[in-house]
Design a protein that fits this description.
Blueprint lengths: L21 E3 L2 E2 L21 E5 L6 E7 L2 E9 L4 E2 L1 E4 L4 E7 L5 E9 L5 E9 L9 E4 L4 E3 L5 E5 L6 H5 L2 E5 L5 E7 L5 E7 L8 E6 L15 E7 L3 E6 L4 E6 L2 E7 L14 E4 L2 E9 L10 E9 L6 E4 L17 E3 L1 H10 L5 E5 L20 H5 L6
Parallel strand pairs: 12-18, 19-27, 25-26
Antiparallel strand pairs: 1-3, 2-10, 3-4, 4-8, 5-6, 5-9, 7-8, 9-10, 11-13, 13-16, 14-17, 15-16, 17-18, 19-20, 20-21, 22-27, 23-24, 24-25
């Protein structure tokens, strides 16, 4: 943070209703002796300006006012060294912080005021806000400093309920290197938790740099207070799209509009719960060799085996992976329990080529429905105008 800076009068938005104690700070005046009369000419000495602070509750702005003068410097710092910046109003007689005070935080206030006659005095004090009864936290995706595919959304899953969605969304600032158009949308995660995703209008442009500043410290979600800020950033890699045609039993990997690999596959068995999903499913993670158990996805004891080159597409358990036990069906018949299976050699090649965030565009006449927004990253299955309506600020 920078050192103290001189403040200039400026218009600010009206301060939120401040509560609690309004305390007049003790002046630490340099220069003048504080005598009621001037020793040289016997005239009454000019009294110093008085400064007071309205001590806020958590989630409210800090207000500093001057009586008998104007504010020339105000510095409000928390115990970690974080500075609450602000602006002056009313001709320099008041100052309001641009951010709210956080719950359970201690602050130091140092303010300098000048009288009309030029006498300056500095006052110092401290205050602490009450601790939050409930704290909300969140999980961000993708991870910081990662490279992702063109379909990857910014995704925030909240630990606690978010009933003040508009207030939270106001604090989520997305910046991109090329002014990408996009919007937040609120949905329910597969886990049942509240979630907010930010997706572009169209797939990301390769090379785009994306940053999220979630300045949430001091924000009440309605299900708990946030007690810290969050930040993440990532870069978009090559334009890769995996197109899966379950009717043709074929998968094509396209890079920059060119087909670079064609793979025979076998999808979910038609006619029941073992069918695959259709629509756009964004590659969530490359999980390597994992144990797959049909009981975890409601399919009884159909399978329980180690599966190589597993690429997760949904939370409900649809993967693309090696399925050597289905070798006779690749390119001929859909005969899996819902996943997109291929030979071990082809799966290894695809696994090495794709990255998290690459979209899998899946079509087929006999599927069990379209991938939902919260079942992995299904936001691309919602039209743009409909998606914008999911914003709490739309």
């Amino acid at each position: 943070m920078s050192a103290r800076t001189r403040i200039r009068p400026a218009l600010v938005r009206p301060a939120l209703a401040a509560v609690a104690l309004c305390s007049v700070l003790t002046a630490c005046t340099s220069g003048a002796s504080g005598s009621p009369r001037d020793a040289a000419d016997g005239k009454a000495a000019e009294p110093p300006a008085k400064v007071s602070v309205v001590t806020p509750a958590a989630g409210r702005v800090v207000t500093v006012t001057a009586t008998g003068g104007t504010l020339t410097e105000v510095r409000v710092v928390d115990a970690k060294g974080g500075v609450l910046t602000g602006k002056t109003a009313s001709g320099g007689t008041s100052w309001v912080s641009e951010r709210v005070a956080a719950p359970g935080a201690a602050y130091r206030v140092e303010a300098t005021a000048r009288t009309a006659g030029g006498k300056e005095s500095t006052t110092r004090s401290t205050f602490r806000t009450p601790a939050a009864e409930r704290v909300n936290r969140l999980t961000l995706a993708p991870g910081k400093n990662t490279t992702v595919g063109v379909g990857q959304p910014l995704s925030i899953v909240f630990d606690g309920p978010v009933t003040h969605k508009a207030e939270v969304e106001k604090q989520l600032r997305v910046t991109t290197s090329n002014a990408t158009e996009g919007s937040w949308g609120w949905l329910k995660d597969w886990s049942g938790k509240d979630r907010a995703d930010w997706r572009p209008k169209e797939y990301w442009r390769p090379g785009t740099k994306v940053t999220l500043d979630a300045t949430l410290n001091g924000t009440d979600s309605g299900g708990g207070w946030f007690v810290r800020d969050y930040k993440t950033g990532f870069i978009v890699g090559a334009r890769q799209i995996v197109k899966v045609d379950l009717d043709a039993k074929k998968l094509r990997l396209e890079r920059d509009g060119r087909v670079v690999r064609t793979i025979p596959v076998s999808g979910g068995t038609p006619g029941g719960d073992r069918r695959s999903w259709r629509g756009t499913a964004v590659l969530m993670a490359k999980e390597g060799t994992i144990r797959m158990n049909s009981e975890t996805v409601g399919l009884g004891d159909a399978y329980n085996k180690m599966v190589a080159y597993s690429m997760r597409l949904t939370w409900s358990g649809m993967y693309a992976h090696a399925a050597p036990w289905n070798e006779g069906y690749f390119g001929r018949e859909n005969h899996s329990s819902g996943c997109i299976g291929m030979s071990t050699e082809q799966a290894a090649s695809l696994y090495a080529s794709v990255r998290a965030g690459d979209p899998f565009e899946i079509k087929g006449a006999d599927t069990k429905g379209t991938v939902a927004e919260g079942n992995g990253y299904g936001a691309w299955n919602v039209g743009w105008e409909e998606w914008k309506k999911k914003s709490a600020l739309g």
